[in-house]
Each structure stands twice: as structure tokens, then as C-alpha cells.
Amino acid sequence: MQVLTKRYPKNCLLTVMDRYSAVVHDMEQMVMIPSLLRDVQLSEREGQAHEGASDLYSYFIMLKTIRVEVDHGLLPREEWQAKVASGKAIEAENEAVEREEAQEERISELDLEAQFHLHFSSLHHILTHLTLKAREVTRKYQEMTGQVL
């Protein structure tokens, strides 16, 4: 397991980012055969998988991709758009940009500190949620391969 070497306050964004990076690194080290994760649902409550729900393999790839961005920074927007293969993803991004612009217009009355707090808390929440997903993918893989401790 990767150990956090830096010490920041518990709710510091850097702590959350380091924790996420460490958990995804551990997931990558544990999952030696990612193809085993295909068609396995993250959580099957009462034996039913949700229609259209992503499988563990999709989560695995997404979590690794986000980790690279957390560790190395964002790609420039043009490079990111070129990297995205499907038109649906570009359409979804454009819709997200439009929603974000509309939200920014609503928030424009707020000062910069309030805007910062809104985005900071959202990022903190998302990274915490993704960290839990990475732990769940690792746990499910361990169960599948009989490595449960």
C-alpha cells in the first residue's frame, strides 16, 4: 500500500488529492488482470444490477485517467477534446459548459471567495466519492480473485 508522505490538515484539498492518488495507485497495483472487471457491476443490491450502470472495468479506467490529471494537471481543452473519441462525450461536455456558464451567471453576484468555496467544496466532495469508488473496485477485485484479507 502506498503511504502518504505529506502531512496536511484532514480536510485540506491537498490531503484529499493525495489520498485519492494513493488509493488509485493501490488499486492499480492490486488489479493485475483488469479484464476480469468487465461486466461486473460495482454494487449489486438485492441481486439486481442497474440498467446502463458502468461495470468495474469502466470505473477502473476512469479512476486511472482522473488520477493522471490529479497528479499531472489538466490537459489543455483542445487536447482533451481531441482525445475524446465519441461525439456524445463532446456533446455532454458542451452541455456541461453551458450549464456551468449559466450557473456562473447566477453566481456572478457572489464574490470570488464564495465562488471559490463552491468549487472547492464540490471538488472535495467529488474526490472523496471517487476515492470510495476506487476502494470498492479494489475490494471487489480481491473478492473475485480470492485475495480478501
Automatic annotation (TrEMBL):
GO CC entries: cytosol; nucleus
Subcellular location: Cytoplasm; Nucleus
Alphabetical UniProt keywords: Cytoplasm, Nucleus
One GO BP annotation of this record: regulation of lipid biosynthetic process
Domain of life: Eukaryota
Family: Belongs to the SPOT14 family.
Protein name in the entry: Thyroid hormone-inducible hepatic protein
Gene encoding the protein: Thrsp
